[in-house]
Design brief:
about 650 residues; alpha/beta; five-stranded parallel beta sheet; 15 strands; globular
Length: about 650
């Protein structure tokens, strides 16, 4: 008699996480403790943009961004409040932080020591993937070489002091959000891991290197094409095993295991008929859980309404319950791999692996990191343009967006409390506490700690030890990052948007004719300036608007992310722009656009039309229009050609004269 499935011991479920953090450390702590009480088994910390990019909450670039997309952590006191009454020795904590990863890990270690924890027992992950920041998310600070050095400094430090900690989480999640094909997601993520391991090899004893390979983890994206996404994960598993064995000589299969966490796709969440997002999230979760041989070790799910604004605790609970029902009510964890030996799956996995190997070979042949970054960025912009073009043309169906648009109003989105609104007093509260922290610390200890940090940065000493000492001395995030900027310099990543038109001009003839006619009236080519004010590094939308404007025959200016309103206005004046576009997805559109419009009026530029795009609630859209913004676009405005026609209308001198 054979053993029945029910006689077997079920597999242990993956870690249940929700990605969370907002307003203040105290408010986020309450959210974490509430989620843990509901059955969440790991924490996933979202930091605000100033923290991610190395600025204190009182910096001019932080205005309007404090606590918007995550929690602000400026110093040890903030980190202490964030984990108050949460025993770190018992926790598995994922911190989504990259450029300032050594610093946030230093603060975490300092708090753990205050709690009396055994630091060697700490478990968790610091994302620490700077290459994807250059390609897709934009929260980088320094050039590639010193940034890579800091990644491997963290890895070398954790090998010695935090052996259960994952020092780097190669993040292909944002690559897919930026338009990557499955082959590009596979190859670009694996190329990042290879770059880190090649650098790490000289920093740890040879006998410990295989175990360090085993500590590298991945953070991936699962989209709606279920079969392709499941096969992509199987391809990841097989390719990583191949790389670890062939390139690095890792014999122990345990150290070659592809260990990954996942957040399913946010790019595909729709503002239209948002209740449909629940089904999308569930289907995408299945792609990374059904296949035992390629199952995620941690899963975090977005909330159904994240295309509308901040999710409420109830919305996050709904996503958590989805994981728990699959893990505990179904029999999924009782079975062997469901897809092993399936010929259709094996064919698709082989196809994806071949495509990824070809991309990896091309990247391997390139001379340096800068060349590779420029190549990958340009590929992502082109792939995203193809994705958007498919939706616009109806070749890719998105239910409720370009097909089956008619439907009943959702009662889930009704009422004033349908989404959570960030506390308007949170930024002022954070600034008050930051000022008190600076006033109450030992200034001499801070000066000495910063000097030691700078010396380590310049002489090659591992950055982690001085960072931990700086954390204990009361140094702030902005002060730590300023030392790093002074030592290594700042960096501007390539935009991926060429000034040369692409060959993707099908369906643009009418708009191109309109652009040509209006340009003749203007006496020169219609000039469109695309700007990204503030710290928001989500540049996908801005890149696609700029690229489409270029392909429509406009003369474009797009200088990338993280510009101040003053820098954008200087470009408006320098290039004599006819229309200005602003893209802000961090929720800071009101303060940034207010500042921008006030300064344009003060400098005599109020005649230049401004259009704004972002995740903008209706009430905020009305406020922006009242300020003088000519058009407001949200994720529901997926037809880029309509936006292009609006830009032509705004620049048309005959239309202006007729008003």
């Amino acid at each position: 008699m054979t053993q029945t499935q029910t006689d077997r011991k079920a597999d242990r479920p993956w870690l249940f996480r929700t990605y969370a953090g907002h307003s203040t450390a105290k408010a986020s702590n309450a959210l974490y403790r509430g989620n843990l009480a509901k059955g969440q088994t790991g924490l996933s910390v979202a930091f605000d943009l100033p923290t991610q990019t190395g600025y204190d909450s009182d910096h001019v670039l932080a205005r309007g961004e404090v606590g918007k997309v995550g929690v602000p952590v400026c110093h040890l006191g903030d980190m202490r409040a964030l984990f108050n009454d949460i025993p770190l020795e018992q926790m598995n904590t994922s911190m989504t932080i990259n450029a300032t990863a050594p610093w946030l890990l230093a603060l975490y270690i300092a708090v753990a020591e205050e709690q009396g924890a055994d630091v060697s027992a700490l478990q968790g992950t610091v994302q620490n993937d700077i290459i994807k920041e250059y390609l897709s998310r934009g929260t980088y600070i320094c050039p590639p070489e010193p940034s890579l050095r800091m990644i491997t400094d963290v890895a070398a430090y954790t090998r010695e002091h935090l052996p259960k900690w994952n020092p780097m989480n190669v993040c292909s999640y944002h690559l897919q959000e930026a338009g990557a094909t499955p082959e590009e997601e596979l190859s670009f993520a694996l190329a990042t891991a290879i770059a880190v391991l090649d650098d790490l090899k000289g920093k740890v004893p040879a006998e410990h290197f295989p175990a360090m390979v085993g500590r590298i983890s991945f953070f991936v994206n699962a989209g709606i094409r279920f079969v392709t996404e499941m096969c992509k994960m199987r391809a990841f598993v097989e390719l990583w095993d191949e790389i670890c064995q062939d390139r690095y000589g890792v014999d122990n299969p345990k150290f070659r295991r592809f260990r990954y966490g996942v957040q399913v796709n946010s790019l595909g969440l729709t503002e239209q008929q948002p209740e449909n997002n629940v089904y999308r999230i569930l289907i995408e979760m299945l792609a990374v859980t059904l296949s035992k041989d390629a199952r995620a070790r941690a899963v975090q799910l977005p909330a159904w309404n994240e295309a509308l604004g901040l999710p409420r605790p109830w919305d996050q609970q709904w996503s958590l319950r989805m994981q728990q029902i699959l893990a505990f009510e179904t029999d999924l964890l009782e079975y062997d791999d469901l897809f092993e030996g399936n010929p259709a799956v094996e064919r698709k996995v082989a196809e994806l692996k071949d495509g990824a190997r070809a991309e990896l070979a091309q990247l391997d042949a390139m001379a340096n990191a800068q060349e590779k970054i420029e190549y990958m960025k340009a590929r992502l912009v082109e792939s995203n343009a193809a994705r958007i073009g498919g939706i616009e043309a109806g070749e890719t169906t998105v239910v409720g967006v370009n097909k089956y648009q008619n439907g009943e109003p959702s009662p889930l989105t009704a009422g004033d409390d349908a989404i959570m609104v960030s506390d308007p007093e949170a930024e002022a509260d954070q600034l008050d506490r930051l000022g008190a922290w600076k006033d109450g610390r030992d200034a001499q200890a801070v000066t000495e700690a910063l000097a030691a940090l700078k010396a380590a940065a310049l002489d090659g000493t591992n950055i982690m030890g001085p960072s931990i000492q700086a954390a204990k001395a009361g140094v702030t995030t902005g002060e730590w990052a300023e030392v790093i900027r002074q030592a290594f310099g700042q960096y501007r990543a390539p935009t991926g948007v060429s000034h040369n038109p692409s060959n993707r001009t099908e369906g643009l003839d009418d708009i191109r004719d309109r652009v040509s006619a209006v340009s003749s009236q203007l006496g020169r080519k219609l000039k469109f300036l695309m700007g990204k004010p503030g710290l928001d590094g989500h540049s996908n939308g801005a890149e696609q608007i700029a690229a489409r404007a270029r392909d429509c025959g406009m003369d474009i200016t797009y200088e990338g992310i993280r510009l101040t309103p003053d820098e954008i206005i200087e470009a408006v004046r320098r290039d004599d722009a006819h229309v200005v576009g602003l893209s802000i997805l961090s929720g800071s559109h009101i303060p940034l656009v207010t500042d921008m419009m006030d300064k344009m009026r003060a400098q005599g530029l109020s005649h230049v039309p401004v259009v704004v795009g972002g995740i903008i609630p209706d009430d905020d859209a009305d406020r922006l229009r009242a300020m003088g913004v000519a058009r407001v676009y949200t994720p529901k405005d997926f037809e880029l050609n309509r936006i292009m026609n609006d830009i032509v209308d705004l620049a048309d001198p005959s239309a202006v004269a007729a008003e």
